[in-house]
Amino acid sequence: MLRVAEPGAARRGHRYRVFERTGWIGVEDVRRLDPQTWTYALGSTKTHMTGVRREKPLRGEAVVALQAWIEAAQLTEGALFRRLYRNGRPGPGLTPDQVARIVQRRARLANLPGDWAAHSLRSGFVTEAGRQGVPLGEVMAMTEHRSVGTVMGYFQAGALLSSRASDLLSADTVD
């Protein structure tokens, strides 16, 4: 959803592609392991308040977008995701309200119906993982969901999109 490009806004496009995969972290929370792999560290969350650094891998297209964003915005410290001023200069870190507005704007640009919020990124990740057949345990390890019941609603919605059970009455499956 966030990949819908704005004309003439290449740097914003890099930010959106990375943002949909990593959330709100600081430059100091990402580190490069090799050219194709970075990690990002999660701080305290509602399910993990111990302050223990938990790192998640980032690979593929997300790494390309992350590197492009860091280079284009010339980031060395502070918030990874920031406001971009009209002159292209990065400003302060994004607030939760700004993130919500970005998600809503990108959904409108993509002509997606419904209500969208920052949580849509996390739930969309789980739904897409289900659609692609990623094992539930791997999804939960990335999202830090503790409750299988909570994550299953999103996961099943995605998995059902490619389920053979949804097409039982088609000509090829009926004897």
Describe what this molecule looks like in 3D.
The chain is of the alpha+beta class. Helix 4 packs antiparallel against helix 5.
What key attributes describe this structure?
disordered N terminus, 175 residues, single chain, two-stranded antiparallel ribbon, three-stranded antiparallel beta sheet, 43% helix, hpI Integrase, Chain A, alpha+beta
What is the H/E order?
HEEEHEEHHHH
Percent in strands: 5-15%
Number of helices, counting only DSSP H or I runs of 4 residues or more: 6
Question: Any idea of the CATH class of the domain at 1-94?
Answer: Mainly Alpha
The profile of the biggest β sheet is: 3 strands, antiparallel
Estimate the helix proportion, in percent: 40-55%
The CATH architecture term of the domain at 1-94 is Orthogonal Bundle
Mean pLDDT comes to 79
Shape descriptor reads globular
Strand order of the largest sheet: 1-2-3
Distance between the termini: 39 Å
Record field, number of beta strands: 5
Residue stretches low in confidence (pLDDT < 50, at least 5 long) are 1-9, 13-23
CATH superfamily of the domain at 1-94: Intergrase catalytic core
The radius of gyration over CA amounts to 18 Å
Helix-and-strand structural type: alpha+beta
InterPro entries: DNA_brk_join_enz, Integrase-like_cat_sf, Integrase_catalytic
Pfam families: Phage_integrase (PF00589)
Protein name: Integrase family protein
GO molecular function, one term: DNA binding
Summarize the structure.
This protein is an alpha+beta fold and about 180 residues long.
Please specify the SSE layout and strand pairing.
Layout lengths: L9 H13 L7 E5 L2 E6 L11 E6 L1 H13 L8 E3 L5 E4 L2 H14 L9 H13 L4 H8 L4 H14 L14
Protein name: Integrase family protein
Pfam family, one: Phage_integrase
GO molecular function, one term: DNA binding
